[in-house]
Write a structure and sequence with these properties.
Helix 3 packs parallel to helix 4, helix 6 packs across helix 7 and helix 8 packs across helix 9. It is built from 11 helices and 8 strands. Strand 7 and strand 8 form a beta hairpin. It has a single domain, classed as Ribokinase (UDP-N-acetylmuramoyl-L-alanine:D-glutamate ligase, 3-Layer(aba) Sandwich). It is about 50% helix and about 15% strand. It is globular and about 40 Å long. By secondary structure, the chain is of the alpha/beta class.
Length: about 270
Amino acid sequence: MPPIPPPFADPTGFAQQSLARVRSTSPLVQCLTNSVVTGFTANVLLALGASPAMVDIPEEAGPFARIASGVLVNLGTPHAEQRSAMVEAAGAARSADTPWVLDPVAVGALPVRTALARELLELRPTVIRGNASEILALAGAGGGGRGVDSSDGVETAGESARELARTTGCVVAVSGPVDFVTDGVRSARIANGDALLTRVTGGGCALGAAITAFAAVDEDRFAATVAAVTVYTVAAELAAKEASGPGSFAVAFLDALAALEPADLAERAALS
């Protein structure tokens, strides 16, 4: 494996700097995402300091993708009009060299979104973020999980994630108790977070939006993805300390994202 190039020699320091860039530049993140998580996703982006835009209809999605800082395509509730807009936005993002993130929600077992994910994969996403079962299915090594829930462990998906990254040229982020990020050559594990993230609708989906914001401000998309996951999961740990359950956690999480300091990352980031 070649040496990790700077500026990723100090991943925690890079995460601190990357968060500062998101806050100072307020990247415009276009979200074509599912109807269940739209509000939470927008609030996560606002808490980070980014600017959300839920532009997801045909004839608007493509032109907007050309001016956005980054584009999120989340397959959670892909009705026919949105499917068309997703392909339009991804194609426009690719032609404009705009970073875009694919979240292949529940691919594998469900035929419509699986076919759509295959079509979108041809448009070369910058980052793919999913749970282990989704990544295995997208790589052709599994049949998917139980709807949006993974039935596979992160370590099971590690080699498939690397191969998917190598064949597509993208970064792959596998979410789980210990998150795994790879570009096919470099890999990182982030052992932060809290189980309450899985008890809030949109906990995983909004991570895709966060990754999009970070990818928009850093050209090293592997390092940017690691930074986004680190910031997101450290904030979850801080929020869990204040929460009494899922409802209070959701509010505390937004507050933690907004209040996160470099010292919090230095103290808590568990990167390897």
